[in-house]
């Protein structure tokens, strides 16, 4: 006799989307993922569950996800935002498929044009890096943070975790204890940034264990609060751009234009691979053509030979 269905099929446990999400988040906590990552996964799973017509996780398949993506696109959602959500959902679905809560399936990211974000210009940096003239501590703190980001290229999440003790003025180094790849890193402290931080630390009574850029209460400054302070700071100085991450692009661009090497930039930015570093080089590569003939060894040699 040909058997196509198992006996007692009704006894198989079916997991709701809510239950699957709870188990997934628990698994992520056991893996000691960062709070930001847990929040990201939780929001993605919750949003998906609230916008699809499926109660159980085993009802989710390629067509269900595609219908969800189509609805989001129809509502005008950005492709970049949707790809971010798809990445999170794929991790969730893989977790469920590995535990036989559902049948696994593959779903590719949506195709999108590479967006080139214009870094801060020299004129804008001149305004933003200028020493404050007011007695506002918030302005001084934001000023120092802007100088720090321009001088290090650190991610905002890393900047807000730096403590006073991490800055070694005698060794001219900064120890980064919270980076994206979770590997502690030591980066150089430039002469200009050293002067700025020393000037800034004179404006408040800091302790060894204090955050370098703290909140009003002295604790860790929230990312949203920092972004709001930066937006007000930039606007007050006549700069329309408000992105904190844009300072990272600005750092990479100016490092490349100054002749910095790709491998060195990779280490300074804390990239796990050269892929993202190469992306910066590709974006700003055309600007390397400025004064290229003046700097190119062949051109300079021929000019010297002609003058001999």
From TrEMBL:
Signal peptide span: none
GO MF annotation list: DNA binding
Keywords linked to the UniProt accession: DNA recombination, DNA-binding
Domain named Tyr recombinase: residues: 115-293
Residue span(s) of domain Core-binding (CB): 15-97
One Pfam family named in its UniProt record: Phage_integrase
GO biological-process terms attached to the record: DNA integration; DNA recombination
KW Nucleotide-binding (keyword) present: no
Record Gene3D superfamilies: 1.10.150.130, Intergrase catalytic core
Keyword Coiled coil among UniProt keywords: no
Protein name: Tyrosine recombinase XerD
């Amino acid at each position: 006799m040909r058997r196509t269905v198992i006996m007692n099929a009704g006894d198989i446990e079916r997991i709701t989307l809510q239950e699957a999400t709870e188990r997934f988040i628990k698994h992520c906590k056991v893996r000691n993922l960062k709070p930001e990552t847990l929040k990201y996964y939780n929001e993605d799973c919750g949003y998906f569950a609230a916008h699809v017509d499926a109660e159980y996780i085993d009802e989710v398949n390629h067509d269900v996800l595609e219908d969800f993506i189509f609805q989001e696109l129809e509502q005008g959602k950005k492709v970049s935002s949707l790809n971010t959500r798809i990445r999170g959902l794929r991790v969730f679905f893989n977790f469920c498929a590995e535990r036989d809560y559902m049948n696994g399936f593959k779903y590719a990211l949506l195709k999108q044009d590479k967006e080139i974000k214009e870094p801060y210009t020299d004129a804008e940096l001149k305004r933003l890096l200028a020493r404050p003239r007011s007695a506002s501590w918030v302005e001084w703190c934001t000023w120092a943070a802007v100088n720090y980001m321009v001088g290090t290229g650190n991610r905002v999440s890393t900047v807000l975790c730096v403590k006073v003790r991490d800055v070694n003025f005698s060794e001219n180094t900064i120890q980064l204890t919270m980076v994206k790849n979770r590997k502690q890193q030591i980066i150089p402290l430039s002469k200009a940034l050293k002067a700025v931080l020393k000037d800034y630390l004179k404006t408040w009574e800091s302790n060894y264990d204090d955050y370098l850029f703290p909140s009003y209460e002295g604790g860790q400054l929230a990312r949203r609060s920092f972004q709001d302070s930066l937006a007000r700071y930039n606007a007050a100085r006549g700069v329309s751009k408000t992105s904190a991450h844009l300072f990272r692009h600005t750092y990479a661009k100016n490092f490349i234009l100054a002749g910095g090497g790709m491998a060195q930039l990779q280490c300074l930015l804390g990239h796990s691979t050269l892929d993202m570093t190469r992306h910066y080089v590709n974006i700003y590569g055309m600007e390397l053509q400025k004064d290229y003939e003046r700097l190119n060894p062949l051109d300079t040699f021929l000019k010297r030979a002609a003058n001999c």
